[in-house]
Amino acid sequence: ALDNEFWMATDQGLYRASVNNPNLADLSLWEKLGEVQGLISSAPVSHLVVHKNELYIVYNQKIWRWDGARFILFFELKDFFINYLSDDATDLIVGLRCITGCGNRVIIFADGQQYNVHGSCFANPLYAVQDGDRYWYADLSDDYRSTTGREQSCQQQFFNAPYSQNLSEIQVADHAVYVA
Question: Residues with Cβ < 8 Å from 43, sequence gap 6 or more?
């Protein structure tokens, strides 16, 4: 909730309703936002996060910030698809997939600055989280990648563990458990 309102991003547009709404399941009590707020009312909104008490949405492959009355453009990058917005801690992290073969990117917004994450931290960015000073990056690789700086290269960690939670066989031999 932001400013006593719930917000809902859908493939039909953006909606809001009062937190005092007695029946949030009744969509007729939700207000659909449109041109007055700077949006095309029927266009999909793919992501919505509240970060540091500010609302950000992904609309038309651009990031928009709510100023209390309308949405203003916060960030856009031509030829990129926005995979995710992560607001799990103090920084806003954006994962971008290039749609023209130009290379994927991850960008961190912090302290009024924009930081480009080092390419060793991702191949195909799926999500990122911040834990204190450490950033963790998820992609389709078999390793875990993390760094303690916004633009530093990542340390890669490999764990000798099953690739998935699916097991086909468990055996005990010589006081050890083997999983396959």
Answer: 13, 59, 60
Q: Following DSSP, what letter does each residue of 16-52 receive, concatenated? A: EEETT-S-TT-GGGSEEP-GGGTS-TTS-EEEEEEET
Q: How far is 27 from 8, CA to CA, in rounded Å? A: 11
Q: HSE-up of 49 (CA within 13 Å, CB side)?
A: 16
CA distance linking residue 63 with residue 134, whole number of Å? 24
Start-end of H helices in the chain: none
pLDDT value at position 7?
Answer: 94
Beta strands in 62-174 (DSSP E): 62-66, 71-75, 80-86, 92-98, 105-110, 113-116, 127-131, 134-138, 144-147, 155-157, 170-173
96 Cα distance to chain centroid: 10
Q: Quick one: pLDDT band at residue 74, thresholds 50, 70, 90?
A: very high
Joined together, the tokens standing for residue 121 give 């931290």
In this prediction, residue 165 carries a pLDDT of 64
Q: CB within 8 A of 37, min separation 6: which ones?
A: 14, 69, 70, 71
Name the band, by pLDDT with cuts 50, 70 and 90, for residue 176: confident
pTM summary value: 0.83
